[in-house]
Design brief:
Length: about 160
Amino acid sequence: MDTLTVEYLNGVVAQMTSYGERVQFSLTSGQTPNYQVINTFDKKMAFNGNHHLMHPQEDEFTGSNATTVLTLEQVKAWIAGVGVKKTVSARTARVSSHSRTGSSPAAAKVGDLIDVQKYEYFKNNVQKLPEGIRAYSQEVSNLMKNGMSAEAAFGEIVQQYF
């Protein structure tokens, strides 16, 4: 997943803008992976690597065959970060993250993206957030992995616990 080009990801964003605010990538379909766009009603439209509609294989977007669901904001942040890390440091981060968690490099990339977004939101809003919210960091991450934006995830935690 970390080899995707900005042009490809911009095509994904174009489809998301038209059809739904969330996306999930297939991990079984090569250099430019198939993906499905998910709208607010949980309707899914699958696209191939050339951004054309397609019918996915039955298990293409389930379990370890697919990434977690990402929001439009997460994909845009991913685009902004494409090519920023040096190859050596990115490889080191992937290898250490992979060996530490036992997850795939793509899952590590998604986790890194969520951590960056969570940190940025926290840093920019620390004065507005209740003291002690840091204790719920993992819950914020889990909500974001399920497609919530950082703002929505922090809001959910504040509503539940404060």
